[in-house]
From TrEMBL:
Residues engaged in binding heme c 1: C55, C58, H59
Cofactor(s) the protein needs: heme
InterPro entries: Cyt_c-like_dom, Cyt_c-like_dom_sf, Cytochrome_c_Peroxidase/MauG, Di-haem_cyt_c_peroxidsae, MauG/Cytc_peroxidase
Domain Cytochrome c: 33-164, 183-303
Keywords per UniProt: Heme, Iron, Metal-binding, Oxidoreductase, Periplasm, Peroxidase, Signal
Stored PANTHER family: CYTOCHROME C PEROXIDASE-RELATED
Molecular function, one GO term: electron transfer activity
Compartment(s) of residence: Periplasm
Designated name of the protein: Cytochrome C peroxidase
Cofactor note (record): Binds 2 heme groups.
A Pfam family annotated for this UniProt entry: CCP_MauG
GO cellular component: periplasmic space
């Protein structure tokens, strides 16, 4: 009888979690040797022509895996076209970059190398620089059959980024029956589903698995007060389809509560301000202060931890 009850309880819990539109995060399989090499490269400024910029310059892992400014500075202080998205939990994204130009993490790693606003170098130049470090060359030869190459560098960094998953968020623990969740956060989750935020922000990463137009119920770019820039066309820059203008990959919200700026253009600086903007332009709704605070509490509960983050 006890065994039957335990089986029933386990199945009931599983069904409950499976029925939710947001699922707990979990680690993914990686090659630890490649992860170690990738970590070295991620923090290595030699990847840029000026030896001043690394992946970690714009994706600051101690905080939220993104930058603390609306647009990051690359070589010679050149500003990027869009806000640097968080690299944490990016393995769960359907594609990488705001416009989805990279099919996966390995493809994304190649983007900043020759971008004049980021690393501003070339693969031959980068590899020649790293080849001067004999210990580095030896380390790559032990892990990769072909040794140090553009493919190996991209693969190693991608493996490291696959390991950047923020686990044990209060929401995940609550969903699994392993921890409490405040009434305000629970109310926020209810509102998040009730108002339809969940239609775009769902799954393991609470987003990152679809594209959506910015400004469904209003002219976001017209109201923004600044001229439209090429990067504002979003997915259109990749597909050249009119229907994709002003369409972007929906960002994951796992670390939204830790962000300094929001949206592809970094135009919003507060979490509740971002929620309010999304409610108005994407849902056609005006939320009360209490509702904004509740949804913000829910988003706060999505924040997990990784060893690279400052406690």
């Amino acid at each position: 009888m006890i065994l039957r009850f335990l089986i029933w309880a386990l199945l009931s819990s599983s069904v409950c979690i499976a029925a939710e539109p947001i699922l707990p995060l979990h680690s993914v399989a990686t090659d630890e040797r490649k992860v170690a090499l990738g970590r070295q490269l991620f923090f290595d400024t030699r990847l840029s022509r000026s030896n001043e910029v690394s992946c970690a310059s714009c994706h600051q892992l101690a905080t939220h895996g993104a930058d603390k400014v609306p647009r990051s500075k690359g070589v010679a202080g050149r500003l990027g076209d869009v806000r640097a998205p968080t690299v944490y939990n990016s393995v769960f994204n359907i594609r990488q970059a705001w416009d989805g130009k990279a099919i996966d993490l390995k493809a994304q790693v190649t983007l900043p190398v020759e971008n004049p606003k980021e690393f501003a170098t070339t693969w031959p130049e980068l590899i020649a620089t790293l080849n001067e470090d004999k210990s580095f060359v030896s380390a790559f030869e032990q892990v990769y059959k072909g040794g140090l190459s553009s493919d190996a560098i991209s693969d190693a960094i991608a493996h490291y980024e696959r390991s950047l998953i923020t686990l044990n968020a209060p929401f995940d623990l609550w969903l699994q029956g392993k921890g409490p969740l405040s009434e305000q956060a629970q109310e926020g989750y209810h509102l998040f589903k009730y108002y339809g935020c969940i239609n775009c922000h769902q799954g393991k990463n609470v987003g990152g698995n679809m594209f959506a137009k910015m400004g469904t119920f209003g002219d976001y770019f017209g109201d923004r007060g600044t001229p439209i820039e090429p990067a504002d066309y979003g997915r259109y820059n990749v597909t050249k389809r009119e229907a994709d203008k002003f369409t972007f990959k929906v960002p994951g919200l796992r670390l939204a509560a830790r962000q300094a700026y929001f949206f592809h253009d970094g135009s919003e600086q507060s979490l509740e301000g971002a929620i309010d903007t999304m409610a108005r332009y994407q849902l056609g709704r005006s939320l009360s202060k209490a509702e904004l605070a509740a949804i913000a509490a829910f988003l706060e509960s999505l924040v997990g931890h990784h060893q690279e983050m400052t406690p």
